[in-house]
Amino acid sequence: MKLSTGIIFCFLILGVSSQRWATFLKEAGQGAKDMWRAYSDMREANYKNSDKYFHARGNRDAAERGPGGVWAAKVISDARETIPRVTDFFKHGDSGHGLEDSRADQAANEWGRSGKDPNHFRPRGLPDKY
């Protein structure tokens, strides 16, 4: 019974239908690693106005892994934008604090997940290493 519950969980929650779940999970893990690499690079670069570029790049890299990577990128991006919105609500009330930046980040996330070039958001002078 527990095994069938786990399989149903994979099909319903993870969005796995005709694709083998092991492949999906592998892609999701690789996509999560891509997202972490983009975040680490953003922190290392510490470059003004580069946030949207790294959002788009991480999502694009993860999405290139396949459906599991797209799923991981969406879940991570949504969590990354939702958690600060919740904490801002407790700090600032329902003032909309940070809402515009969060929407811009989500637009960059979607841009990357759709396979578009993240260099659209690349700020001038960002080292070629990134």
Radius of gyration (CA) equals 17 Å
Low-pLDDT regions: none
| Average pLDDT figure | 85
Percent of residues in beta strands? under 5%
Q: Level of helix content?
A: over 70%
Structural class: mainly alpha
Distance between the termini: 48 Å
| Element-level helix/strand string | HHHHH
Number of helices: 5
| Largest sheet report | none
Multimeric state of these chains?
A: single chain
Summarize the structure in short.
With 130 residues, the protein is mostly helical. It has helices at 2-13, 21-45, 51-63, 67-92, 99-113.
Explain this structure.
The protein has 130 residues and is an all-alpha fold. It contains five helices and no strands. The radius of gyration is 17 Å and the shape is globular. The protein starts with a helix and ends in a 17-residue tail after the last helix.
Characteristic terms for this protein:
130 residues, mainly alpha
How does the SSE layout of this entry go?
Blueprint: H1 2-13, H2 21-45, H3 51-63, H4 67-92, H5 99-113
Helix pairs in contact: 2-3, 2-4, 3-4, 3-5, 4-5
